[in-house]
Each structure stands twice: as structure tokens, then as C-alpha cells.
Write a structure and sequence with these properties.
Layout (H helix, E strand, L loop, with lengths): L2 E5 L5 E6 L2 H4 L5 H15 L58 H17 L3 E4 L9 H11 L5 E5 L4 H7 L5 E5 L5 H6 L2 E5 H11 L1
Parallel strand pairs: 1-3, 3-6, 4-5, 4-6
Antiparallel strand pairs: 1-2
Helix pairs in contact: 2-3, 4-5
Length: 207
Amino acid sequence: MASVKVYNLKGEETETLELSDKVFGAEYNESLIHQAVVTYLCNQRQGTKSTLTRTEVRGGGIKPWRQKGTGRARQGSIRAPQWTKGGVVFAPKPRDFSKKMNTQAKRNALFSALSKKLADGELIVVDALTLETPKTKEMVAVQKALRLDKRTVVVMDEPDENVLRASRNLPTLATISVDEINTYEIVKNAIVVLTKGSVKKLEEVYC
């Protein structure tokens, strides 16, 4: 069973926490992680883009000039693709980009990503994450204390309005609830910070 050090917001070690091997000791599976990330990104697409083809652009019903005798190339409509304000060839239309992935495969991808972060020393556990006031400088102080000098995602067990507002203006820091955790957020960020409560929730749900 893996173990990890637990820190407070001042960067001081407070205790050692035993982690579940099912969640934090999974085998690294790069192809499964890739599939989970692609599925997540595809499911974020709205698929509402749409442009007009030559049959949908208004106007152009009459032939611009006669077929022969003008010396110019023959044209059938001023709404043909080669004309300014003409239609688009193979115009993109609304479509569904969503992909499906088995629930167990999603879980295994998440476990694999978390286990990789732990093995690489890029996973930090804090005892709690609460701020007295919603000020950015307080969150910056936490960043410095925990040495979060790279892109970081903070996973909280309970949403804290002060933490959310204090981290809103920090471009390298993202905060999500443990209910929103996914493989993409784990892979996207260099460092993952989990509260002790979020670790407990993860193990309760998946173990």
C-alpha cells in the first residue's frame, strides 16, 4: 500500500497517509489515458458550426452573362464557390462529436493517471484547504509554501467560495470539486493537489 506525506497550507509536514492501491497503485496505461482524454475533449465540442453552400446563399439565380461570345469564362451563378460572397465547398454543418467510453474504462484511466502522478512525485496531499478571505494574495502564499511553481489543479472535497474566488485570477492554478475529477484535468496539469477529504471520497467511491 502506497503512502504519501500530508502538508498544511504553510508547507509543513503533518502526517503520513496510506493510499489505496486500487486508486493510487494502478498500472500505467497510456493508450487508455489517451482514449479518455480524446473522449472528454470530443464531448466538450458543441458541434454547432455551420456555413452556407452554394444552394443556400441568397441570390445568384440568373446566369451572370451568356455562355459564349463574351471572351470570359463561362459562369452559371454569382453564388458559386469561386465568387466573392459565394457558397462554401463542403461547408461544415452541425454534427455530433460525442464519443462513448465504458464507465470502468474511464475509472481505470483515472486511476492510471493518478498513480502516474504519485509515482512521479507530482501529487501533493494537504490536510485541508480553507482561506479566511477570498484574496488572491492568500492563494499565492499557499502556492509558494507548497512550491506550486507549475500548472496545478486543486481537487477539493467540498467547494469553498473563498478558495474559488482567490484562485480565479491565477492563470496556472485551477480548482475543481472531487465530483468533477477526470483524466483530462489530471494529465493537463503538471501538479495535482488533493485535500485529505478528497482522497477519502475517492477511495470510498471506487474501493
